[in-house]
Amino acid sequence: MFENDKITIREQMELREEEYLSKYAMRSRDSAGRERKEEECDIRPVFQRDRDRILHCKAFRRLKQKTQVFLLPKGDHYRTRLTHTLEVSQNARTIAKALRLNEDLVEAIALGHDLGHTPFGHAGEYALNQVCPLGFRHNDQSVRVVERLEKQGEGLNLTWEVRDGIRNHKFSCTPHTLEGEIVRLSDKIAYINHDIDDAVRGNILKEEDIPAEYREILGTSTRIRLDTMIHDVIIHSMDKPQICMSPEVMEATLGLRKFMYQNVYMNASAKGEEEKAIHMVTRLYEYYIRHLELLPEQFLDMMEREGTGREQIVCDYIAGMTDTYAIKKFEEYFIPESWKI
User: Fold this and answer.
1) How many other C-beta atoms are found inside a 10 Å radius of the C-beta of residue 140?
2) 191 assigned to some structural domain
3) pLDDT at residue 110, as a whole number
4) What global pTM score does this model have?
């Protein structure tokens, strides 16, 4: 507490939210709360506390060795799942601050939105979705990470609003807060632009290859396009109960996204190694299903304690692997010792 005050620092911050935030913002004191009740922190409002929990969890640290688009690229400047997450967070915070929405909530959702992503990016997600009878979606797995897998099965006990934003960050989903909507759109803004940057670096694309109609509206460089998109979101969402772009910029953004799918995400040079990654993840899944005894004790305990099925547990374990760890386990199980370099 402050020396001459009767209320905590957290409560003072919550009062400042009432004075400063937009009427459309999610206020910390109005949160629907956590699955398990906890004593409030005397310093941090609930969403700031969630942000800190995500930032310090093991799943967040593993993102630095997980593929964004390019599988184990030769170079230090390509994005990883971690740098993608940080770029989403930065874009989202910029928009939230300008719109006077809850920046702590936005940051917590952004930092947690990809915690459940597999090794090898969407190739790993595709493999698990194909081989597991339960299916697999990385947004749902991200929620499972924070609810059940972190802290040796205790989970992070995050607020409902953060978990809702994480679950609904995909373009086909609808978050229940404007802060979640910001992250949902910021995710697309980030990956479209940084994937262009990485594709140019990898000699898969030239800036001049981008259709003139999109360059004319959005700009002729990654920096300019980011500036255009973020400004457009802020201008057209100001003092409104929704997060949106202008029709012109949204159409160009979706067109650019489609162009990237056709020319980068499905490009043989960029994705030529994906079949190998899919094969590795598929074989690992099939191997662990037959050899559950090889799983770490935490996962076996969850099966016994909670009755979680073997398919879910094996997906939990593989989805948590980094690229390098998945390769290591594949070599251990499937490559003869005499063949290893």
Assistant:
1) 14
2) yes
3) 98
4) 0.95
**Residue 16: exposed, middle, or buried by beta-carbon count in 10 A (0-12, 13-18, 19+)?**
exposed
User: Per residue in 41-94, pLDDT tens?
Assistant: 999 999 999 999 999 999 999 999 999 887 766 778 889 999 999 999 999 999
Q: Which amino acid is at 287?
A: Y
Hunting for tokens 């490009």 — which residue is that?
Answer: 267
Number of domains composing the chain? 1
Domain range for 72: 9-339
Q: Which residues of 174-209 are buried (b: 16+ CB within 10 A; e: fewer)?
A: ebebbbbbbbbbbbbbbbbbbbbbbbbebebbeeee
pLDDT in tens, 82-140: 999 999 999 999 999 999 999 999 999 999 999 999 999 999 999 999 999 999 999 99
104 residue type, one letter: D
Q: Token pair for residue 265?
A: 């995400």
Output the domain CATH number for residue 91.
1.10.3210.10
Answer whether residue 216 is part of any domain: yes
Considering just the CA atoms, what is the radius of gyration of the chain in Å? 21
Measured in whole angstroms, how far is the alpha carbon of residue 136 from the centre of its chain?
Answer: 15
Q: How far apart are CA 110 and CA 115, in angstroms?
A: 10
Alpha carbon distance 12, 203 (integer Å): 52
Which residues make Cβ contacts (< 8 Å) with residue 264, sequence separation at least 6?
A: 69, 195, 196, 199, 204, 205, 270
Evaluate whether residue 4 is within a structural domain. no
